[in-house]
Amino acid sequence: MDIKTINLKNDKSILFISPIFYNYHLLIIEHLKKMGFTVFFFPERDYSILFKVINNYCNHRLKDYQVFHYNKILKSIKGMKIDYLFVIRGFMINKNFISEFKKMNPFSKTIMYQWDSNRTNKFVHIIDIFDKVCTFDYEDCNNFKRIQYIPLFFTDDIASMQEQNTDTQYDFFFMGSYIPERYKALMIFQQYLRNKKYTMKSYIYIPVSSLIKEIIRGAKIDKKIISTKHMQRETYISTLSKSKAIVDVSDVNQSGLAMRVIEALAMRKKVITTNKNIIKEPFYNRSQILIFDPENPTIPDTFMEEKSSNYPVLLSIDNWITKIFEI
Q1: Common-topology check for domains 4-150 and 157-305
Q2: Which of 263, 256, 262, 258 has the alpha carbon at shortest distance from 239?
Q3: Do the Cβ atoms of 324 and 113 come closer than 8 Å?
Q4: What does CATH list as the number for 157-305?
Q5: Taking the domains of the chain in order of start, what are their residue ranges?
Q6: Taking phi first (over 0 means left), then psi (-120 to 50 degrees means alpha), and beta for anything else, what does residue 178 get?
Q7: CB 277 within 8 A of CB 205
Q8: What is the DSSP string of 112-147?
Q9: What CATH number belongs to 4-150?
């Protein structure tokens, strides 16, 4: 396993473990670098074909395979001075790894951030072994008092588009991963739009293995909006910039605001969402944000026509990192 090292000016170092999700892990590393850290990065799991085989067909061996993965990380950092362990998600980490890491670095601080909910990927069994635990999920904050609420962030490529005047090409834009109930809601929403004057761009990512499973079980899938490849970041940013509003059909297992919601708001776009928790945010305003029923969507023409003026104050990636490392 190759260790990815960023050499910086000061002597503070971070062992950073996270999913490889689009390029967000690279952006976080880049900004940690700007803030003066040396970063040793490892993915939360092995992204090889072997992992996919074990995960899909030999799931009973997955736990042992993960122990092997984290033991390799421990061997790679042996003898190094690490000031922080920073983990995103973390449900794949075993307690023994944290224990051994602390033996190797007894004065280090350990931080975990969740951009999934405990209902989606259970992580509560390791909360107590971290010095600080944060999440984007409202429900997890209410259920587990040790967890601090910190919403997700927007990145520099989003910020750079805030003041640009881009010609509108679509009224609505949807981009997300395939979930059966999300796909169903999107089909209903598109049917609703057929009787209206609005245009919409839809893009749903689904892994090949999941697509095969859906086809086998008889699901009817519109191949025009389904892709087994992730939308390129540049394409996503460009499409978002050319859209009036983003459509968010939230995962029913999560109560926090998805990254696409934060990014749309940061780019000063309107948001149509099924997530009622958004009204809890101080930035909620009716001229920019609309909650809709996925079974019976209704979009007032006045909402689309009204211009927003009070744009929300959101966390940039630097603000987000600063909040997390306040320990």
Answers
A1: yes
A2: 263
A3: yes
A4: 3.40.50
A5: 4-150, 157-305
A6: beta
A7: no
A8: EEESS-TTTS--GGGGGGSSEEEES-HHHHHH-TTE
A9: 3.40.50.2300
Residue 300 · residue 318 · CB < 8 Å: no
CA angle in degrees (0–180, nearest 5) for 301-306-310:
145
In this structure, the dihedral spanned by the alpha carbons of residues 165, 167, 169 and 172, taken in order and rounded to 10 degrees, is: 30
Chunked mean pLDDT (size 10), the chain, 327 residues: 48 92 91 93 84 69 79 94 96 91 96 95 93 96 94 92 76 93 93 90 91 87 89 93 95 93 94 96 92 95 84 90 92
How many beta carbons lie within 10 A of that of residue 212, not counting itself?
A: 12
Q: What angle do CA 324, 161, 269 make, to 5 degrees?
A: 85
* 251 in Cβ contact with 181 (< 8 Å): no
pLDDT, tens only, 37-54: 999 999 998 877 777 766
Sign of CA dihedral 73, 76, 82, 88: negative
In one letter, which amino acid is 53? Answer: V
Q: Write the CA distances from 185 to 24, 130, 182, integer angstroms.
A: 27, 38, 5
- Look up residue 254 and give its amino acid: Q
CA 43 to chain centre: 15
